[in-house]
Design a protein that fits this description.
The complex is a heterodimer. Chain A folds into two domains: 2-48, no CATH class; 59-294, MetI-like (MetI-like fold, Orthogonal Bundle), CATH 1.10.3720. Chain A contains 14 helices and no strands. Chain A has helices at residues 11-21, 26-56, 60-68, 70-103, 109-121, 124-135, 142-147, 156-167, 169-182, 185-192, 197-226, 229-235, 245-254, 258-294. In chain A, helix 4 crosses helix 8 (156-167) and helix 11 runs antiparallel to helix 14 (258-294). Chain A is globular. By secondary structure, chain B is mainly α. Classes of the chains: A mainly alpha, B mainly alpha. At the A-B interface, helix 2, helix 4, helix 5, helix 6 and helix 8 of A face helix 2, helix 4, helix 5, helix 6 and helix 7 of B.
């Protein structure tokens, strides 16, 4: 550190001292790395290990039985069914609103973007409550729904609605900044050359936003499969009927069937890890793409 | 002349179609799914008399839950502010084996279902668990205590600070550090006076996001907290309990309080993000 006072430096000297002056000594580095890794081990790695350990501790056969038992299968089926509705709908919404926001100027844009963020801030429990109050048998539209023989709360439609609410922002939040940054020149060029709006979207916009869209869909999917608080309120926890995978895990855990609870958890954990791998891979691709043009 | 006027009309008239369709669909979707239902909750509580509303939201058991929810969220977010910044720093500045994997795993609390996290944390931190057993001899109970609530809320908020600070650190211009060092500042002064102010807006944004997420969190907490009235009951749990007893007015009143807190936090976060983007 004393050398910093002896200015001016020749460029060779400057090159030599730079790494030292803008980096920490080795022992500081390794202390910081160790603290960070200890923290992450306690909070991220051990919970992951405990789930997998709990799931496979009793052997593959027990695991297989736990995940193929009828209630577990029906929970898996229900979760997949919900994902098949929720993810495409929120993806379409995300593309539509990103198109409106990125390609056009209008008043109230910032407010609109803030509204999209609302589900991030609202407790999942409040989300469930809102729909029970509106659509439940004692709710505002309850009597009307009962008259028309439509059951939403304590049934599958209610689960779909609250998960739609909870995962609404993911695709939109990925696509809005991406499409804003890409501008609209390419679309304008395509349209000027005579392509129709739809054709422009399919052949120009979609390829450009492909990775952002996949990224958003993956995140939306991860959150949708795990949604718990909101579903806990609207599902009624009817075994074999309205139990999603997270609710089934709760039931098993509360009945002290820990191995089975961890077995079903391991399936969701596997999907969560796939989510992270896909996400990291897309980010890594992006990074390389950003680096390569600047490298001349 | 003709060409110029043509160009002018082309510039004035937006060639891109689909505004009506995309905007119409988006607004309809948001209204039906989000705006009308949220307004519905507020209207529903407006039907209550002020006394009923006040009684529901100021019951001692409920007040105890606010204290726990907000205090534990505050502590959890603070832990994340310190360790999250440290993790971001380590991931951006140093290289060590397994860094890519660690970097990816930071997102685990986003991706892992909260119920799974909940049963994993309680198994780990219970008196007989892999971690809890080392605290038990000292009389420290983590699971089924308020410490357990803090642990769960720290876990759930972990990615926020890391992921908001990380890009700012990565984009930070090394020249500024070099200039600071060349001007005679030692490493600690450079970090405190040059790097820290640069990451502060992002840090505060991450802090607020972690806090907001923690206040409303349900799934990862209820297993480890043990849900003892007045002691380890979080506010979202009381809403669920009241809804399960069909006390919708009581639940809605507390829900509106939570909604109010969420809106305030959302405004704060938007303000912070605006500040951060202006700095950037």
């Amino acid at each position: 550190m004393t050398t910093t006072n002896t200015l001016p430096l020749t460029s060779a000297e400057a090159m030599q001292y730079t790494p030292k002056a803008t980096a920490e000594p080795g022992w500081v580095k390794w202390t910081l790395v160790s603290i960070a890794l200890t923290f992450l081990t306690l909070f991220l790695i051990l919970p992951l290990v405990v789930v997998l350990y709990g799931a496979f501790e009793a052997g593959m056969q027990v695991w297989w039985q736990a995940v193929t038992e009828p209630d577990a299968l029906s929970a898996i089926r229900l979760t997949l069914f919900v994902l098949l509705i929720v993810v495409p709908l929120n993806a379409i919404f995300g593309v539509a609103i990103a198109w409106a926001i990125a390609k056009f100027e209008f008043r109230g844009k910032t407010i609109l973007i803030s509204i999209i963020d609302m589900p991030f801030a609202i407790s999942p429990v409040v989300v469930g409550l809102i729909f029970v109050i509106l659509l439940g048998s004692q709710g505002w539209f309850g009597p009307w729904l009962a008259e028309h023989d439509v059951r939403i709360i304590f049934a599958v439609p209610g689960i779909v609605i609250v998960i739609l609410f909870g995962t609404l922002p993911f695709v939109a939040r990925e696509l809005i900044p991406l499409m804003q940054q890409q501008g609209k020149e390419e679309e304008e060029a395509s349209l000027t050359l005579g392509a129709s709006g739809w054709k422009t979207f399919w052949h120009v916009t979609l390829p450009n936003i492909k990775w952002g869209l996949i990224y958003g869909v993956v995140l939306c999917n991860a959150r949708a499969m795990g949604e718990f608080g909101a579903v806990a309120i609207v599902s009624g926890r009817i075994r074999g009927e309205t139990n999603t995978m997270p609710l089934h895990i709760e039931v098993l855990y509360n009945e002290y069937m820990f191995t089975a609870a961890f077995a079903v958890s391991s399936l969701l954990t596997g999907l969560a890890l796939v989510t992270i791998v896909v996400k990291s891979w897309i980010e890594w691709k992006d990074e390389r793409k950003q680096k390569s043009p600047s490298a001349h | 002349m003709i060409r110029e006027s043509k160009m002018r009309t082309a510039a004035l008239k937006p060639v891109i179609p689909g505004f009506g369709l995309t905007m119409g669909f988006s607004v309809l979707y948001l209204s039906l799914l989000l705006i009308i239902p949220v307004a519905g909750l507020i209207l529903f509580t407006l039907q209550m008399s002020w006394e009923d509303f006040w009684r529901a939201v100021s019951h001692p058991q409920v007040v105890a839950s606010y204290k726990l929810s907000f205090l534990a969220s505050f502590i959890g977010a603070s832990i994340n502010a310190v360790f999250g910044t440290l993790v971001a720093w380590v991931l951006v500045r140093y290289s060590f084996p397994g860094k890519r994997i660690i970097d990816g795993l930071v997102d685990l609390p986003f991706a892992l279902p909260t119920a799974v996290a909940g049963i994993a944390l309680v198994t780990l931190y219970a008196g007989t668990g892999w971690v809890g057993q080392y605290f038990e001899p000292f009389g420290i109970r983590i699971a089924y205590s308020q410490i357990g609530v803090v642990i769960a809320l720290t876990y759930i908020g972990l990615p926020f600070v890391v992921r908001t600070v990380q890009p700012v650190l990565a984009d930070f211009e090394k020249e500024l550090e070099e200039a600071s060092a060349a001007l005679g500042a030692n490493r600690l002064t450079t970090i405190r006076r040059v790097i820290f102010p640069a990451i502060l807006p992002a840090l505060l944004t991450g802090y607020a996001l972690a806090f907001a997420r923690a206040v409303g969190e349900y799934g990862s907490v209820i297993f480890i907290s043990g849900n003892l009235p007045y002691k380890t009951e979080i506010t979202p749990l009381l809403i669920v309990a009241k809804a399960e007893q069909y006390d919708y007015h009581g639940a809605a009143a507390i829900g509106v309080v939570m909604l109010g807190a969420a809106f305030i936090l959302l405004l704060l976060i938007n303000g912070l993000q605006w500040w951060a983007s202006r700095r950037g």
